[in-house]
Amino acid sequence: MFKFKIIKPIKQTAYLRQSQKIKARGYILYEEIADKIDYLEFFKEFELLDTFYSWFTVTELHIWMLSLRAMAEGENGKDLRNAIVEALWTDVAQRVKRLGSGSPSMLRKPNSRIIRANASCIHILR
């Protein structure tokens, strides 16, 4: 039986409120997703181009799977899921800046793929 508890206590954070601990855990989980996925293996296996969009799609898939699991934790799970999605969009803004594709205002321009991806994230947030 699956006994993994997704909302783990964060050590040395006694001074944080529960909501802050959950948000911090969401950012930590996102970082683990972003850092530990073998993106090149995904790109090769599924014949994806090595692009920002491919990176986003693979990352979003993993976030979606983790979000489904978080939802089993009730209200705290919803908060955790929201923090993970927030961390994703924070990371996306930073990556866009590093790519030199312009300023974060570029994210405000309509891009049908990103809009669909955002819509799917919003759908699971309900």
From TrEMBL:
Pfam families, per database record: Ubiq_cyt_C_chap
GO cellular component: mitochondrion
GO biological process, one term: mitochondrial respiratory chain complex III assembly
Ranges of residues in domain Ubiquinol-cytochrome c chaperone: 45-106
Domain of life, per lineage: Eukaryota
Similarity remark: Belongs to the CBP3 family.
Name by which UniProt lists this protein: Ubiquinol-cytochrome c chaperone domain-containing protein
Annotated organism of origin: Diabrotica balteata
